[in-house]
Automatic annotation (TrEMBL):
This is tRNA-dihydrouridine synthase. Belongs to the dus family. Coiled coil: none annotated. It comes from the Bacteria. FMN binds at Q85, K155, H183, G243, R244.
């Protein structure tokens, strides 16, 4: 097994898997504006193994595993690894789909989602529900590892209703995953309250005793690269995974930190829309893009007015026209 996790010098920096966010177009965008020394690992959206195993639903679910040729080129140039994240609750299906993904695609690793807190997913006994089913969780990790030569990592949380970090991480680490990413909230918290980094530190101490070779990344409420690097050192981590912080700054993983101009923000927005259109055309809902508009339309005069117009748009061309007009004004100014 080629375990790339052990090849990356600390601090390891990763962009979290996010539903309807980390598709190939957004991943490529982030990779383009990031330094290879500051961004090491990207993840796909959550991919259901049951969906991949379904003769009818597979086509739609497999869209989460699409990697465009232009993304492949950028990742290869910068040495950024790409990991497919999968979820479910049946070891035999994990085994089957892990093998299929390994043989069909060109990912650098697989990651098992044991952290998603969404209630309808948890009710299925999947993702963060597995924290209270350690025997099943173990079977899933081992079945996945058996099916692939790729490194198999796990992303999880500190507990269901309360923090159970010591118990859960001790059990999880017995399976020797290639890496563990720990979000410092329980399932019950969802995204509320603050992530508890003291709990993440507990996981590091357990790792140090039981399996010092397993990298641990922390996750939760990290809003700048400087903060990520500081947390890595402060809590004895191997790295940090960034989630919502990317929405505040798509240049998060860039070593240069000047205040971005209106022109830079709008050009990046234009590129994002173009990449999305080139990849998906009309096969994906155009409105998915609207969740991103606030990233680029802030911090300049009348940004909110532009954003309101964009939220009313219904086509790629409308966005290009709105952004084009604004860029022309930049050059006039």
């Amino acid at each position: 097994m080629n375990n790339f996790w052990k090849e990356i010098a600390s601090p390891i920096m990763a962009l979290a898997p996010m539903e309807d966010v980390t598709d190939t177009s957004f991943r490529e965008l982030v990779a383009r504006v990031s330094d290879s020394a500051c961004l090491h690992v990207l993840f796909t959206e959550f991919t259901a193994v049951d969906g991949m195993n379904h003769p009818v639903g597979k086509q739609r679910v497999s869209e989460r595993l699409v990697v465009s040729q232009s993304e492949k080129k950028i990742l290869k140039e910068k040495g950024i690894r790409l990991v497919a994240q999968i979820w479910g609750n049946k070891p035999e299906v994990f085994h089957k789909i892990a093998r299929e993904i390994t043989e069909t695609y060109e990912f650098d690793g697989l990651d098992i989602n044991m952290g998603c807190p969404v209630k309808n997913v948890v009710k299925q006994g999947a993702c963060s529900a597995l924290i209270d089913q350690p025997d099943l969780a173990r079977e899933i990790v081992l079945a996945t590892k058996e099916a692939t030569h790729l490194p198999v990592s796990v992303k999880t949380r500190t507990g269901i209703r309360n923090h159970e970090t010591e118990r859960w991480i001790s059990q999880l680490i017995e399976t020797r995953p290639a890496a563990i990413t720990l979000h410092g909230r329980t399932q019950k918290q969802q995204s509320d309250g603050l992530a508890d980094w003291q709990e993440i530190e507990k996981a590091v101490l357990i790792r140090n005793q039981l399996a010092p070779e397993v990298p641990i990344l922390g996750n939760g409420d990290v809003l700048s690269y400087g903060q990520a690097a500081a947390y890595t050192e402060r809590y004895g981590l191997d790295g940090v995974m960034i989630g919502r912080g990317i929405f505040q700054n798509p240049w998060f993983f860039n070593s240069e930190h000047p205040e971005r101009t209106k022109e830079e923000k709008l050009q990046l927005l234009q590129l994002h829309v173009r990449l999305f259109e080139q990849t998906w055309g009309d096969t994906k809902n155009f409105n998915i893009l609207k969740r991103f508009f606030k990233i680029y339309t802030n911090g300049f005069a009348e940004a909110s007015k532009l954003r309101a117009k964009m939220m009313d748009a219904n086509s790629f061309n409308e966005i290009y026209e709105l952004v084009g007009t604004q860029l022309e004004n930049c050059f006039v100014d």
